[in-house]
Amino acid sequence: MANNRLEMGYVRSKMINDKKNTEIAICIPTYKRYKLLKKLISSINKNENTVIIVGNNDNVSVFEDHDFGEADREKFTEIFVTERGVTAVRNTLIQYCLTEFVNLQWVVFIDDDQVPSPDWLQELMKVAEKTKADLIGGPVAKVPSIETYWGEGATNTSYLPVKEGYVDMLNEGGNLAIATAFLRRLERKPFDPNFGKSGGEDFEFFLFAFKSGAKLAWAPKAEVTEIIPKDRLTLSGLVFRSLSTGMYQTKAEMKYNTKKDIFYRIMKRLLLLPAYTARDLLKYRRLNVCLSLFVRKLSSIVGACFGLCDLSISRYGQN
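Structure tokens predicted for Glycosyltransferase (319 residues):
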């Protein structure tokens, strides 16, 4: 990748000796989240054929943080990514893994603010073995850092699949396994750099993969937990997040569908919004829950309309 420079940091001899036997690479994009990263790495149960690769988007090594003990340092390899943005980090991690590990079967992504369940990796691989899918995704349980009136709208995940098996869309890039056989066939960067600031590189990748004939599968027991910060639990945070999501999803869809088809789907969502709200009232029977879900859905629809006009919001700035 033209603008990326890979720099190895603190590579352990065991890592080098195990390169030929490595079948799974757990990849963690990170940026200035040392304490969360330490918690994540300490919670990962990996076997002898698995490595952990941290893609650091900062110029300060994560090893410099005093919270990392020697045992934690031995568990992972760190590479530096100079190009800003999680899209660049994801692509660089994939490039590194495909280059360094000749017998690698899976690249598995988890975000630095998430914590996996004890059997997380095993559950992903079980579904991989059953389905022979190219991409496997699992649920991300959203836990609010504080209780707020609007928190339910930011943390509700009732839209996720329940059953194990094939799907036509996955949840997000933070709990995802990708077969290296599929990655080696690609004639493009897996994650589109055009979504680096807006977010949605994972959504676009899932659309591309499905349209390309890849098999996508869902592993409901491969759960990870993510603590949602308080700035996303406010009304403004909820609206901003939902609005930007609607924008980038429409922007991604415009690569594969006509504006007319997308417009009709947006209008269908708008017309069905009262029915969905009534359903939520019957299901939750709590005003704040229903109101926050209504705001999230309406903001997403408005964002989709903006996206159809080729407008976008920078969700991540320069980082």
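The first strand starts at residue 7 and ends at 9.
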